[in-house]
Amino acid sequence: VRGIGFNDRDVSFVIVTGTPDRGVKCVDKHLQQKNIEQLQNLLDEMDTLVICRSKAMDVLAKFEDRRFIHPLRNCQSQLRFFLPRYNLTFQSRNGALHCQEIVGYKLLPEQYVNGTFRGIMQYLVLGRDVGKSSKTVILFPQGVVRR
Asked: Which of 1-10, 64-73, 98-107 has the lowest mean pLDDT?
């Protein structure tokens, strides 16, 4: 059994050196089919992978291994966190982390669900305000869950 051929792979990151914009650029999904020459012309539009130590990383790390959380900064210095194994992105906006894939929901500051999931530690609590009430969604990873 052979792996994916080189020409059939998509580019996920581009390393830029020798310029003031140097760094690791993240190639968004809609750009991944482009060839390297086309990507070179789009570097300014790409987010930069950054080192981030924050409470947000600590919260996301209870759901996903830190090695697979990509903190990214765009050209407006806005921070977002991409979890590629779950195809989830959390955009920092107005002091909260908003989920781009589950529109209208944001990561709640209180991530503990009292007594409901005894012994299960790997989940994220998202919420949204709807009029005078609120709605909550709890995300669990598919597969083996850490206890």
From this structure: 1-10
Q: Which residue has the tokens 């530690």?
A: 121
Q: How many CA atoms lie within 13 A of 62 on its CB side?
A: 15
Q: Report the alpha-carbon distance of residue 47 to residue 71 in Å, rounded.
A: 9
pTM attached to this predicted model: 0.78
Which H helix or E strand runs over 59?
A: helix 55-61
Cβ atoms of 102 and 86 closer than 8 Å: no
How do 70-73 and 133-139 pair as beta strands? unpaired
Q: Is residue 74 classed exposed, middle or buried when 0-12, 13-18 and 19+ CB atoms within 10 A define those classes?
A: middle
Kindly state the average pLDDT of the residues 94-100. 92
Give the rounded percent of residues in the chain with a pLDDT score beyond 90.
31
